[in-house]
Each structure stands twice: as structure tokens, then as C-alpha cells.
Write a structure and sequence with these properties.
26% of the residues lie in helices and 37% in strands. The protein is of the alpha+beta class. The chain has one domain: Translation Initiation Factor IF3 (2-Layer Sandwich), CATH 3.30.110.
């Protein structure tokens, strides 16, 4: 079961919350990030930290990004 972080519920900039959630992942675990827009600026940070991601728009105002360690 993947972990889920809905950043729509976070006040302010969620970047540090996302990085903390990624730091807590164990090998083989997945983080599903839920956002109201496609978080394109996050992708470079994920690549630098050796995470793969797959993004899907599930509603007009909902994007889900499945993030896994490489």
C-alpha cells in the first residue's frame, strides 16, 4: 500500500513536507503525491535525489504523482 501525501491540505509551500515524506520511505515503498496542479518544478528535485515519478491527471483539479526510489 503506497503512502499518500495530499499537499492540497498543507498551508504554504509544501516542498519541505514532500522532502520529509520522501526521506521516510523505505526501499520498495511508493509515495503518492496529490496536488491541484502538475508539480513540474518538483521533477528536477526528484531526479537529483534518485526518485522516479509517474504523473496522472485524475480530475481537472487533481494530479497524482507516484514517486518511487530508484
Amino acid at each position: 500500500m503506497p503512502r499518500e501525501l495530499d499537499v492540497r491540505e498543507i498551508e504554504g509551500e509544501p516542498f519541505s513536507d514532500i522532502m520529509s515524506a520522501l526521506d521516510e520511505l523505505n526501499a520498495g515503498e511508493t509515495l503518492v503525491l496529490v496536488n491541484s496542479f502538475e508539480p513540474e518544478p518538483l521533477y528536477a528535485a526528484l531526479d537529483q535525489r534518485d526518485f522516479d515519478h509517474e504523473t496522472e491527471q485524475t480530475r481537472p483539479d487533481e494530479w497524482r504523482v507516484e514517486i518511487t526510489p530508484r
